[in-house]
C-alpha cells in the first residue's frame, strides 16, 4: 500500500488555508480568524506545538470559523463551498500523483476538506482530522503521534506501508513504519528510506 501526506505533498499548498481564503471571498466576516489560523498553521509546520495545544487551539478556531460560515447568508452550505473550492483548485493536485485503488491519504487537514478531493481523485482511504458539522466541533485531530496511532487503528497492526510520501520531517514516525519513504519538495521526489 502507498500512503501519502496531502498538503505540500500531492496538493500544491495548504488546502485548509486555501479554503479559508476562498471562503473569506464569499463572506469577509471570517477574516477575523486570519491571525489564529496563521499562528496555528505556522506552529504546525515548524513543529512548535504540542498535540494538546493543537487540539485546544485548532478546535476553538475551527468551531468559530465553521459556525460563522454555517450562519452566513452568503454561503449556501459548507459542503457546497468545499465542492466549489475543489472545482477551482483541483488542478493544484501535483501532476506526478496518479491514484491507485489502495492508496491512503494521511493528513492533519480535515475530512471535510480533503474528503471532497479524495472523492474527485477516486481515493477511498482517508485518515484525517474530523469535524462534526452538527456541533462544529473538532472530534479528532490527526496530528503528530496521532497519525501512526490512527493509521494502525484503521488498518491493523500488521498493515504494511510499501511507500510513504511526505513534505515534512515531522512525519518521521510514518517514515519509520514504511518500507520505502520519499520526501516531496514541489514536484521533486527524493527517496529518504
Main beta sheet = 7 strands, mixed
Q: What is the H-and-E element order?
A: EHHHHEHEEHEHEE
Task: Provide a count of the helices.
Answer: 7
Q: Please give the alpha-carbon distance between the first and last residues.
A: 16 Å
Mean pLDDT: 91
**Percent of residues in beta strands:** 15-25%
Describe it for me?
By secondary structure, this protein is α/β, with parallel strands linked by helices. It is 44% helix and 21% strand. It is built from seven helices and seven strands, in the order βααααβαββαβαββ. The chain has a seven-stranded mixed sheet. A hairpin with a 4-residue loop joins strand 3 and strand 4. The longest helix is centred in the first third of the chain and has 20 residues. The mean pLDDT is 91.
Describe this structure in a few short sentences.
The chain has seven helices and seven strands, in the order βααααβαββαβαββ.
Throw out a few tags for this protein.
single chain; 193 residues; alpha/beta; seven-stranded mixed beta sheet; 7 helices; 44% helix; 21% strand
Amino acid at each position: 500500500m502507498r500512503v501519502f501526506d496531502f498538503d505540500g505533498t500531492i496538493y500544491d499548498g495548504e488546502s485548509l488555508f486555501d479554503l479559508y481564503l476562498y471562503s473569506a471571498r464569499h463572506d469577509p466576516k471570517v477574516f477575523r480568524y486570519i491571525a489564529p489560523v496563521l499562528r496555528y498553521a505556522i506552529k504546525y509546520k515548524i513543529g512548535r506545538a504540542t498535540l494538546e495545544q493543537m487540539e485546544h487551539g485548532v478546535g476553538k478556531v475551527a468551531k468559530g470559523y465553521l459556525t460563522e460560515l454555517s450562519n452566513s447568508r452568503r454561503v449556501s452550505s459548507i459542503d457546497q463551498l468545499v465542492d466549489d473550492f475543489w472545482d477551482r483548485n483541483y488542478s493544484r493536485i501535483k501532476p506526478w500523483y496518479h491514484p491507485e485503488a489502495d492508496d491512503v491519504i494521511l493528513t492533519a487537514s480535515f475530512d471535510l476538506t480533503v474528503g471532497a478531493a479524495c472523492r474527485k481523485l477516486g481515493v477511498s482511504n482517508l485518515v484525517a482530522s474530523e469535524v462534526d458539522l452538527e456541533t462544529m466541533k473538532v472530534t479528532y485531530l490527526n496530528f503528530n503521534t496521532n497519525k501512526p496511532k490512527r493509521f494502525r487503528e484503521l488498518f491493523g497492526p500488521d498493515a504494511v506501508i510499501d511507500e510513504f510520501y511526505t513534505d515534512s520531517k515531522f512525519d518521521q514516525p510514518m517514515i519509520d513504519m514504511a518500507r520505502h519513504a520519499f520526501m516531496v519538495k514541489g514536484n521533486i521526489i527524493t527517496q529518504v528510506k
